[in-house]
Amino acid sequence: MKLMFIGADHEVTGSCHYLECGDTKLVVDYGMEQGVNRYENADLPVAFSDLDYVLLTHAHIDHAGCIPLLYAKGFRGQIITTYATGDLCQIMLRDSAHIQEMEAEWKNRKARRAGSPEVVPLYTMADAQGALSHLKTFEYGEIVKLNDDISLRFIDAGHLFGSASIEVWCREEGVEKKIVFSGDIGNKNKPLIRDPEYIKEADYVVMECTYGDREHGAVMEHIDELTHIIQKTLDRGGNVVIPAFAVGRTQELLYFIRKIKNDHLIFGHEGFPVYVDSPLAVEATHVFKKNLMRCYDDETRELVEQGINPIEFPGLYLSVTSEDSKAINFDAEPKVIISASGMCDAGRIRHHLKHNLWRPECSIVFAGYQAEATLGRSLIDGAAEVKLFGESIDVEAHIEVMKGLSSHADINGLLEWIKAFEKKPERVFAVHGDDAVCDVFADRLTHELGLNASAPFSGSVFDLIEGRWIEETVGIPIQKVTPARRRSDSVFARLVAAGERLAKVILRNEGGANKDLARFADQIHSLCDRWDR
Prior knowledge:
The chain is of the alpha/beta class and 533 residues long. The protein has 16 helices and 23 strands. It has three domains: 279 residues, Ribonuclease Z/Hydroxyacylglutathione hydrolase-like (Metallo-beta-lactamase, Chain A, 4-Layer Sandwich), CATH 3.60.15.10; 180 residues, Rossmann fold (3-Layer(aba) Sandwich), CATH 3.40.50; 49 residues. 43% of the residues are buried.
């Protein structure tokens, strides 16, 4: 019975942890790395085709985004998650695959003109659809018995629709251990979704610490703040442009604006239009509506029971086609535009910034975290000029930041979550935090709460029965690799994974009919003859 740390260890994206119990092999999350990463991630210790399960905490791309790549490399097990997360993955993984294919096609058009080698996407739409066919979803609180080795239960983490902490019971050689994977722990008192649910007992806890060294500060009255921004901007005759993450943050903003309109808080512009300009956000909003009673908090549930949709209101327009999107900026009426991506690095928001950044009557409102080296961070940091689509744009619009909207618990929320365990776990592993933050948080758990806490690096392996490290690694800094070399390595790794799967299929067919085995062997030899050059 062992736990191996793979991704989001001393980093905040690319979440993945490998668990082996008896004959069962699984990973908890298989996320995409985003932004700047410091360390190399260890490889999975088994062939992708040997994995039996993926347990998925939630649908954000840094936790779910590489699941189609697992499928592309031979994984054919089950993906186990909550109902709402399954619904969100249906749209988010397809959207991610579409982006991978479109980016590869764009690069290949340039490569063909330059006579350079073409690239392949990280994964394709077919890979995403194949992975999604292996989804199996469950309710919060339902005990799920995977096999004789492992049972599990999803507990509401309060971070996103469908987000969960996962309780996993492992049995091996007559010993049972309970491991809790926190997932991303939510901030309390958020609109729409419930507060994080607490867990009372575990032998081991793998715990996120994104904000493990800081407080969010005083909670702002977000409706008052947003009302003030909208009123001032509309009075100037400008547009309010809000870069927002398509899943979660967009729906929160719609909740606030419905309240603003319902309480008649805007004067002189009562019917102001609001555009959600993101196909992914539109589809995600439909998923939110579908799961109204499953995931909403009590306040929102009361609205639903009164026949009120908490994220719909008069004057809301959902923009899907590119023609719809273009028309928004050719309409002179002052308006609110919510568009993705939330950090302004891609998507339709860049077109809206091009049309509105140079206008002093407009406001650009940031309602989420802006990572280093993103356009959003540049604007918050006071850039006087930015480049969009090869054109220099003067920044004359008002730049506003709504603080305290984080979907992650701060240090106080994290400590409250871990203090809820009635019996101290044998060990807590601090993950999903910046390099220094993981150490700071683990040290605080040790010295303030008396817990046995540590912050492992990728590649570390822990024996859950013996309660000791099998291997403890240090972080291996990422070496600069050329894009061409990275693509080449990725494609070759996919070929190796296909070979591993073939070997596994061959062994599974032992004892088959001689006629079928002979035909299978001939097919393999024919393939080898073609490529053995």
